[in-house]
Amino acid sequence: MSFKSPRDDEDDPDNLYSILGISSNATESQIRSAYKHLSKSFHPDKHPENLELTSALFKKINKAYTGIEYS
């Protein structure tokens, strides 16, 4: 039996797309648009009352975008 750590999921290319809420065959424009929308929505400065949560989400969104961009 194999167990995956949460980090394994973050490195899975298919999961990178799902983090951004797009399909794996999304265009560059769709990827950029999804990233901009999510990064604005979950920016820690917009939600100081939930700083820890939004910081974690924001980092995850950035990591997904960077992973797709350089894959």
UniProtKB/TrEMBL annotation:
Domain J: from-to ranges: 15-71
Q: What Pfam families would the database entry show?
A: DnaJ
Q: Entry's InterPro entries? A: DnaJ_C4, DnaJ_domain, J_dom_sf
Q: What is this protein called?
A: Chaperone protein DnaJ
Native source organism of the sequence: Neolecta irregularis (strain DAH-3)
